[in-house]
Amino acid sequence: MSWLRALRETARSGLTIERARLEPLIALRGAAGLALVLGVTLTLFGPLVAASSAFGAFQAAIATFQRSWRPRPVLALVSGFSLGVSTFLGYVTGSHLVLFLALLIVWTFLAGLAWAAGPTAGVIAASNVAIMVVTVTLPTSVAEAALHALMITVGGVVQALLIVVFPIRRWGAQRDALADALAAEADYARRLRHDPVAHFDPAPLMEARKAAAVTARQARRRPAELHGSRGAAERLRPVLASLADPAMGVPSEGPERDRVRELLAAAASLLDAAARAIRHGDPVRLPAPAVAALKTPDTGALLSGPPLRAADRLTALLSDVIEAAEGDGTKEERAGAAEVADAIEAGRGDRVPEHHSRPTLPRLVPVVLGSMRRELHRGSPILRHAIRISVVAAAGYLLGLALPYGHGYWVPMAAVMAMRPEFSRTYERSVARFGGTVVGVFTASAIVQAAHPRAGLSAALAVLCALLMYLLMRTGYAVAQACVAAYVVFLLGMAGDDLSQTVLERVLLTLLGGVLAMISYALYPAWETPRLRGRLGDWLKADGRYAASVIDQYADPGRRGHDDVRRALLATRNARVAWQEAVATAQHEPVRHRGLSRAAAEDTQHALAQLGRVAMLLEAHLPEGGATPVPAAAPLADALRRATEQGAKAVRERRVPDWTAVREALERWDEEERSQGAGSDPVVRNGAGLLLEALEEFSQGLDGGSRSRSHAPDDG
Prior knowledge:
Layout: H1 3-15, H2 24-44, H3 47-64, H4 72-94, H5 97-113, H6 119-135, H7 142-165, H8 172-194, H9 203-212, H10 216-221, H11 229-244, H12 255-280, H13 288-295, H14 298-302, H15 306-325, H16 331-347, H17 361-374, H18 381-402, H19 410-418, H20 423-451, H21 455-472, H22 477-495, H23 503-523, H24 532-555, H25 563-586, H26 598-620, H27 633-652, H28 660-676, H29 682-709
């Protein structure tokens, strides 16, 4: 992709208004908290302290809108406290340029590294730096700086208290995540009726798993309907796939296939009913035709072998989902239902591992520090982002001081708020921030210059801008930035700190900050495109381990548990999502494909998805503890594990993997069966053959895609 096209694409995405679900009640609550803080501090302490406290309340409310499974009051408290500390330290060193510059570089560098802990931590940390360069200009002494920092923290406390006192749709995010996972399963079941080998995106299940991680206190308080359904949904996916896939025994057409389609349609209807009930906290309304379709005795007459086992498991799992989704009953009944649901998960090998429990904030600190420390290596995109943003913040601050416009904090504030670890996000935010800021600054400045509002009216206008920002912040970054820019103008105008600056000067300083952000990425990039082969190799290795773990279960069912399969499945999901995100990011980068063409990426992605799907089919028919072992499965599992590890290394080194070891293991398996005159379970043997076909398709796609593009012009 060329630079011009990359800029055009990122600008379009940044200025597009998304039709996301509005949350007016939450927006009103955040604006009410801001108005309360502003009104009280304006009356008691005057405009300067009121401006500081308003920044704290404003930022704390923004933090609660971030995508996080942490309780919203916790996010507000963390935001308010960290911003208060940042402001106080900034003022203490503000009178000494060298000291403040050193603090700004270190603080911004740590804010960049905070992205290692997730986007929520990164956004809060970057916002603290951006607001710090503004708020340090308000106090006039150390004592006043301490008061301002305290009031900023109080603003976060007020927002946290309002969330506790006026909860809006408690556990709503967790309900939505679980309901989305069940709805995705329902959609998958419907697609399988027409496409028996349809692929499934595990992202909704991964989000539901993240949402299910709770602290010990949350575990005692969460609704009973949030227990159990996720585990059943996890087990439903392979059962649905194995029931529909012709390779598992059901012909492509005929009475058996018609019965499978009926079962899939019934499963989709019941899953949709459970999703609706969980999302809204209502009782489950079961569709009668779906229940009748599952209870009909025709299943046993038409299906046999693996398909019949899959149908029986489907019925049992759907019963588990419906039971867990029922949210009525007394507190004791809910607790009992939760214990039963957890016991069902533990008994079926879906035991929640230790890392799935969410640590409390004190215990989270070493985890975050460890994540940041692991990014301190050459080639880390997070480290490059931290270096970029710290250099840009320092350069922007110095430029703001050197220019004759005054109030140069607009330069570093614009740059820090716009910069993200990814190229596309940085560029789209820079363009959108400039466009939104022009509109917001021009409109607010025109109102101030025409009406000359007093402190009270300026505060009211600032609250109105904040309300609009909270309401529309998920519909387009440019719209939100227009509200933010107007909010800053009204608030600083109320404090009398920004009245001497013209509209043109503010716009130019903001433009300079955006230009610095874009130049920094051009000079010191962290492209995802050159790392695509590494991401692909990671996915291949994870898929191989997952398939090997499943095959291992057939070798000795009595001795092995299912925990290793579960861990391998989660690892391959993470690797797949990392690959998909890398591909999406690389599409907007103006660089060459560096050895992995678009055709090769598509072909190999399809092959690895097929490899994971076959392993999932085999997982759906894992033998019980007393089943007959399949000794030949153990050498095949070892060959799969070693071959995919070597194949991942070959992918990174731009070589085509070789699967001779896997092929030879299958040949030895067939020879042993012929010599013994007995055959193993056709499910595992047929599945093993499909695994080899997927691996060979992967090599063909990697080799064919590379050769077909070897003499073609690059995408750049």
